[in-house]
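Q: Start with the shorter request: fold the first protein.
A: Done. Sequence, then structure:
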Amino acid sequence: MSLLTILFCIVVLVLLITWGKVNPFLAFIIVSLLTGIMLGVPLSEVTTVVENGIGGMLGGLVIVIVLGAMLGKLVAESGAAQSITNVLMRLFGTRKIQWALMTTGFVVGIPLFYNVGFVLLVPLIFSVAYQYKLKAVYIGLPMLAALSVTHGFLPPHPSPTALVGQLNADMGLTLIYGFCLAIPAIILAGPVYSRAIRQMESRPLSTFQAEPMPEDQLPGGFNSFFSALLPVLLLVVVAVWQLLGTPKGAAGEVLAFVGNPSVVMIIALIYATFSIGIGQGKKMKTVMNHYAEAIKDISPILLIVAGAGALKQVFVVSGVSTELVAGLQNWNIHPLVLGWLIAGIIRVCIGSATVAGLTAAGILAPVMQDVGADPNLMVLSVGAGSLLFSHVNDSGFWMYKEYFNLSVKDTIKSWSVMETIVSVVGLIGVLILDVFL
């Protein structure tokens, strides 16, 4: 009954947005309230659950998304994006730019939280698309596939790191196995699949589009790369330091503070304000105007992400995930497939990859010794399942749709299919590794 309720509410959400032309944020709020009532959440608590979902989602994202948009706007308006693009194109050429962006997404995505990587690297995709008249979806999907794979498969990302602890896996082995799965998954979901949709039209947000500047007015290549990727560099340093051993006392507190994505973005934006803003002859007022324009463009995305958070919270509070997996535990199937399937079903119904992965791990952890599965492979199987078919109840779906300015249909055709390919290839890779380990 719960599954039918979820399917019904998702259909209502899609129809409100596509057929009814209702604003996505308003549609999310209406459907979240409806879903809560239908799933048995007490009437006196439904609105509180929705409000908590909005606050919980924005609490962790609003600073990163807004500051990332500001940095992206400055990188575009200062000519830094153009300078970065020129360097990449000279190194790889137009034919190989997909692979250049994919490699960048993978390297950057290993230490970087997904949402931070998204808002930092999407402007680079748009810059290449605008400057060289290439399709944004075609060249951008490989980079986003790389970010998604690192988010779902590889520690030190929050979800796989938590899964390692829950399932008593080994961090190092999980990382090594994860690399083995990540490369084919990214290639198939990125450069290979994007060929099927290479003509897909999109009109990305104009906030990241700047008029081409003369070469002599552009920031230098090193300055452009360093300013744009400073958040990445800071997080890499912090991640490596933590892997080598978290310092105690005051040093540990400072490291934790500096390594927080919000603080990293603030530091990076302050640096960029002077390095590619004021340092390039712009007035502070002009730079601040760029930031104000970025906020205006990013506000609809924040509302849509907030709406997705409200719907997700209704699913979580109603306990529907526990009910769904209760009937799956006694299925006579391979335990690694079961882990993938449980995470996948929760992901499709709830939308959050992190919630799906951690919920599946909570179900499987008590029986890991009995099923005889390799815990390192189970981490990867659950992680792959948690990426299955992102759609309208996932904030990542809406971030991608709104940034690339696509229809819901084209978002499903590109984003949702790409995520599904990553998930399925991940499962196949896990089963192959299981044969040899």
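Q: Next, the second protein, separately.
A: Sequence, then structure:
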Amino acid sequence: MKKRYWLGGGLLVILLLAGTLLIVSQQNSQSAPKPATAPVAKKKPQPSVPPLTHRTWKKQPELKYAGIIYYAVKHLKIQR
């Protein structure tokens, strides 16, 4: 008698697992992924910067100092 309960319980568990797997697989197949498209990078508009001239270099001493510091930092391989 106990053997019959074990067989029935085991069969019930197997059927429940199979049904659960069947339902999950059907739900996954129905929600098919959308075709992947390449993300489009939005380009920020570049601000229009006027070219650095000798006149602006002389009129704005802060610009001169900033230019010297920038040159010293970015061009490290020159001998000092």
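Q: Describe the second briefly.
A: Helices lie at 2-30, 54-59, 61-74. Residues 25 and 31 are 10 Å apart (CA to CA).
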